[in-house]
Amino acid sequence: MSSQFLFWVRRVAAVLIFFVTIIAALAAGLITPYLLAARTANIPLLTLSAVISFALATWFGTKLTLLCWGSNKRRLTVAISGLFTLILFGCLYILVLRPSSSHFAEAIPYANTKYWQLPTGSWIAYSEFDPPQGVAVKPEAIVYLHGGPGVRQGPFDQDIYGSFAANGFRVFLYDQAGGGLSGFLPHLRDYSVARSVADLEAIRQKIGVDKMILIGHSWGSTLAASYMAKFPTHVSKVVFHAPARIWNLESGEEYDYSRTDGTVSGLPHLRLLAALLLRDRNTEAGENLVPQLESEILVVPWFRNTLGTVVCKDSFNKIPKDLIEVLDGHENPGVNPYVVQEVIPDTEHAEGDPHASLRENSTPAILLYPECNYLSWKGAVDYRATLRNLKIYYIPRAGHYIQFEQPELLKRVILAFLLDQTVALSPYTSDADPRANHR
User: Fold this and answer.
1) Domains and CATH numbers, the chain
2) Tell me, what's the pLDDT at 437?
3) What is the pLDDT of residue 252?
4) How many CB atoms lie within 10 A of CB 181?
5) Maximum alpha-carbon separation in the chain
6) Residue 1 confidence (pLDDT)
7) Closest CA relative to residue 239, chosen from 373, 412, 355
8) Which residues does the chain have with pLDDT short of 70?
9) Do β-strands 365-370 and 235-241 pair in parallel, antiparallel, or remain unpaired?
10) DSSP labels for 18-61?
11) In angstroms, what is the C-alpha Rg of the chain?
12) Contact partners, residue 159, CB within 8 Å, separation at least 6
């Protein structure tokens, strides 16, 4: 074997070693702070651990690279490993550590926004619609539960549900704790299904009614079901609008975006992604890196990209312009990504599963399932199998937010149910997916 051949073998091997070194060093720089976060929420310390891990791995790999290359200069080893460590730190600062802005704007209140200080400790923003003068006030109030969790009630919700005040209902729409205009909870671990249920019960007492009519959209339906399981005598009727599953929201859920005008893809801002990963190990570490208010700012571009999933294909123009303008202008929409990261896994705990209690519940209920819903039809069937007095109505040519494409039909169906009138649609009684005939 010629010396020339061995020379090039060593050169190629050195290049490969250095390539592997950088990959291994990056892995060490990422994994070390992630593991250490279980012990500390100190961001400077976690950053230092990342830099030291990367530096040591780079120094060792560079030394091997130079030996293979045929050089053993200590200064060169230090210089190369030091240079790459500085590059790493610079990238880490720019992409992850540097705050996105010196000022983080809060979500903007609506003209009719009011506030409750609940005995649970939650500071809750809400909007109230009362019957006009001369219209008798019904004893049950309507309370709307928005989806998410971690988002807010919108003007498009007020337009639909607020209109029921004309029929004698007091209507309340509120932002659940941590989302929209409502206050952040002190610790991320405070966000839970149990806290959401406790807040809702406190709201019932605030508005002074014995029974509520609950209208839950998406996750709001899950919240309504959990509330009904614990406080069955305080719900007179319930509407499940494009509901998420009753429980265990992530396990086995099938998201189908084929009928929608968008999809969920890509990753959020790297700074927010790092905070969410740290939150998996230590909630305080995640929030120390990115406070809740800043997280609402960082999630805007990703949230904007998912808008098409809530309407049918080629119906993006049906999404309210004011909602698009808020997101395109990078105004804070009040979407708190930490809330969903805390609450959704909370539905995996069997001890909170409301199914058993709901099987004994005879509260009148309807479920509205839209044709272009990305949530599984199996979830709707589970509601009907669990709640003995529930009817499903299939809403054609509508997405996850039915009011965007079928506002009048949505109002007619719900209002007929609330007033004990004949619903314009026939209930869908089969367990077969109704969308099979609408492909």
Assistant:
1) 3-97 (no CATH), 113-431 (3.40.50.1820)
2) 65
3) 67
4) 22
5) 104
6) 55
7) 412
8) 1-2, 5, 7-8, 72, 102, 252, 437-439
9) parallel
10) HHHHHHHHHHHHHHHHHHHTTT---HHHHHHHHHHHHHHHHHHH
11) 27
12) 403, 407
Token digits for 429?
A: 């009684």
Q: Which two tokens stand for residue 304?
A: 């904007």
Q: Which amino acid is at 412?
A: R
Of residues 121, 149, 186, the one with CA closest to residue 343: 149
State how far the Cα of 240 lies from the Cα of 379, in Å rounded to an integer. Answer: 11
Element (H or E) spanning 214, and its range? strand 212-217
Under 8 Å between Cβ of 247 and 353 = yes
- Position 260: which residue type? T
CA 260 to centroid of chain Cα atoms: 19
pLDDT of residue 380: 96
Give the model confidence (pLDDT) of 33-54 as tens digits. Answer: 999 999 999 999 999 999 999 9
Handedness of CA 138, 171, 220, 116 (dihedral sign): negative
- Please give the C-alpha separations between residue 65 and each of 8, 21, 75, 226, in angstroms, as whole numbers: 14, 9, 14, 60
Cα dihedral sign, 7-10-11-12: positive
Three-class DSSP category at 118: coil
Q: Can you tell me the distance from the alpha carbon of 210 to that of 232, in angstroms, rounded to the nearest whole number?
A: 11
Report the alpha-carbon distance of residue 95 to residue 140 in Å, rounded: 51
Q: Has this prediction a pTM greater than 0.85? A: yes
Indicate if the alpha-carbon torsion angle 288, 290, 295, 299 is positive or negative: negative
Measured in whole angstroms, the distance separating CA 248 from the mean position of its chain's CA atoms is 15
Rounded Cα gap, residues 32 and 45, in angstroms: 11
Q: What is the pLDDT of residue 330?
A: 72
Q: How does DSSP classify residue 260?
A: B
Q: What phi, psi does 171 have (nearest 5°)?
A: -120, 130
The pLDDT, as a whole number, for residue 405 is 97
Torsional sign, CA 361, 362, 363, 369: positive
